Structure formats: C-alpha cells, structure tokens
Amino acid sequence: MSGSGTKPIFEIRGLRVSVDGKEVIRGLDLSIGRGEVHAIMGRNGSGKTSLSYALMGHPRYQIDTGGILLDGEDVTALRPDERARRRLFLAFQYPVAVPGVTVANFLRSSIRAVRGDEVPPKEVRKLIRRELQALGVPEEFMSRSLNEGFSGGEKKRLETLQMRLLEPKVAVLDETDSGLDIDALKVVADSIERLRSPERGILLITHYQRILNYVRPDRVHVLLDGKIAMSGDAGLALELESRGYDWVDARATGTEA
C-alpha cells in the first residue's frame, strides 16, 4: 500500500508466468506505492530475473494468468516498447552489446522515443552531459559502441545513466549491483537514491544485501520457487544476511527449528 493512501504506482496481481512450458512465477502479488522502494531478494533460480523479464514483456515469458498495472493502467498485453513509453524501465542484469550503435545515438534515440517533445532537441545534449558528470562518466564514453568491450561496472553505470535520462514512473532493477566494485556500487546506489520521488516507484531485485546498505528499501520480499515467501521491512534483509535462505525455506515449509 502507498504511504500516502493514494492508488499504487505499480501492481502485480496473481501473476503466473511460464517459459517454454515451465511455470517460473507461481501466483505473485505485489503493490508498490508512490515514492516507495521495494527490494526482491532470493537465491539463484528463485525466479527473480524471470519476473523482471515478464514485467517488461519479454516475448519468451508467457503470462498465463494475472495482470500488471502501471499507474492504474493494465499493461499486461502491451509490447515492451509500449511499456517503455508509459515509463516502465528495466535495467538488465547482463546488458547486451550492440556493435555499430554509439552510446550517444542510443541515448538520444531513447530520449526521443520515451520522452518525446518533453525534452527539446537542443536540450538533449545538455541533459546527457549533466547526467554524465553526475555519474562521473567521461564524455569519450559517448563515442563507443553500446556496451561493446565495456566492463561490468561501465555497463551498470550506463544502465543507471539511461534510467536517470528517461525518468521512469517505475524502474525495475535486475541485480544492478552484480559485478560492481565498492566504489561503483556507491555511485550507482547514490544515483538510485536520488531517483526517489513521490511520483515514482522502484523495484530493486538483488541476490545480496550489500546494495541495501546504500539504498534503503521500504519493503523487502523474499522470492522462493516463483512466489513471495516472506515480506518485511528493511530489517528483513539483515536477517537474511545472518540466517541465509535456508531459514526462509524452513519457515515456508513449517520445518523451522
């Protein structure tokens, strides 16, 4: 529920998702209020990345039942580009390289496609330069092919740059902390924190607790076998750090000592 009592910015209702005939999300409900950051944690294979792909409309991920609502609109049947234009953003765990397409051209095209006339063409370059400086990314970055030869940290900084430029209503961040050293982690986390807004929701998907030392979630959910097995406040992440995911398994199956 939203802390302000208004309708949620993002809702997942009874979502069931399959890939190649195998069910990977098994009845998931989640509601993110305006201005809230929710974290989803879980071990490898729990369905975290499958959930992110399904939310963005990846064609391999078949939504069998349930729905996805963005700012009150049902976007379940929309294509990925249509969801993006409605300001749903996904930061990938493993961003792909696109040889021959420069970072500059990609960012300019993305801004035009998503924000349209909101940003005048003459302001686009200024906007990009300002955000580059905020993230400590050199301008030479712009002439390189998208993600080609990039380190893990460079890819994640670029994803964060895209997020800041596109100003989504809801940002789904799939293991943004993966492959980051501590300095890059702090930069990315600070950028996520500064993206917090009363008119925005953030879903932060992570395997480890460490990024939550810098991005404090309003709610933490633990994914187990495609379902939310446990939810709590930010303290739940610390409890997971000390007890591990076996503790969640035991709670879910009623075998906790």
Distance between the termini: 32 Å
- Based on Cα principal axes, name the global outline: globular
Percent in strands? 25-35%
Structural class: alpha/beta
* CATH class call of the domain at 10-94 and 169-253: Alpha Beta
Under the CATH scheme, the architecture of the domain at 10-94 and 169-253 is 3-Layer(aba) Sandwich
SSE string = EEEHEEHEEHHEHEHEEEHH
Strand order of the largest sheet: 6-9-10-3-11-12
CATH superfamily of the domain at 10-94 and 169-253: P-loop containing nucleotide triphosphate hydrolases
Number of strands: 12
Gyration radius (Cα, Å) is: 18 Å
Helical run tally: 8
CATH topology of the domain at 10-94 and 169-253: Rossmann fold
The biggest sheet amounts to:
6 strands, mixed
How helical, in percent, are the residues? 25-40%
Question: Average pLDDT across residues?
Answer: 90
Q: What this model shows, in words?
A:
- By secondary structure, this protein is an alpha/beta fold.
- It has a domain at 10-94 and 169-253: Rossmann fold (3-Layer(aba) Sandwich).
- It is 35% helix and 28% strand.
- The chain contains eight helices and twelve strands.
- A six-stranded mixed sheet has the order 6-9-10-3-11-12, with helices on both faces. It has a four-stranded antiparallel sheet with strand order 2-1-4-5.
- Strand 9 (170-174), helix 6 (182-195) and strand 10 (201-206) form a beta-alpha-beta unit.
- Helix 3 crosses helix 4, helix 4 (121-135) packs across helix 5 and helix 5 (152-166) runs parallel beside helix 6.
- It is globular.
- The model has no long low-confidence stretch (mean pLDDT 90).
